[in-house]
Specification:
The protein is an alpha+beta fold. The chain is about 50% helix and about 20% strand. A hairpin with a 7-residue loop joins β1 (about 5-10) and β2 (about 15-25). The radius of gyration is 24 Å and the shape is elongated.
C-alpha cells in the first residue's frame, strides 16, 4: 500500500503550520491508477502527455457512448423521442 506524508495544521493557529508533526495517510489509488503510474514512471514530453490525455478522453467518451446506447436500447428510446425532447422545455419554475 502506498503512503504519503501530510503536514498537520497547528491546532492553536489555523494559519501556521507545525512542520515537526506529520501524519501518515494511506493513498486512495485504485489498481488502474497504480498501473498507469507504473507505465509512465519515466519522464514524458509535453506533447506525449497531451497525446496520452487525448487517448484517455477518447476512450472514456467512447465507453460512455456505448453505455448510453445500451441503456437507450433497453428502454426503447428512438431518434423520434430525442427530437421531441429537443423541442420541449424542461426548466421548472421556482
Amino acid at each position: 500500500m502506498l503512503y504519503s506524508k501530510n503536514i498537520l495544521v497547528n491546532g492553536n493557529n489555523q494559519n501556521s503550520l507545525n512542520l515537526f508533526e506529520t501524519k501518515v495517510m494511506p493513498a486512495a489509488l485504485n489498481s488502474t491508477q497504480l498501473e498507469i503510474l507504473n507505465l509512465f514512471s519515466y519522464e514524458q514530453t509535453e506533447e506525449d502527455l497531451k497525446e496520452i490525455k487525448s487517448l484517455l478522453v477518447t476512450y472514456l467518451a467512447d465507453k460512455v457512448t456505448r453505455e448510453a446506447d445500451k441503456s437507450f436500447g433497453e428502454k426503447g428510446y428512438t431518434n423520434l423521442i430525442f427530437e421531441k425532447w429537443k423541442k420541449e422545455h424542461f426548466r421548472k419554475r421556482a
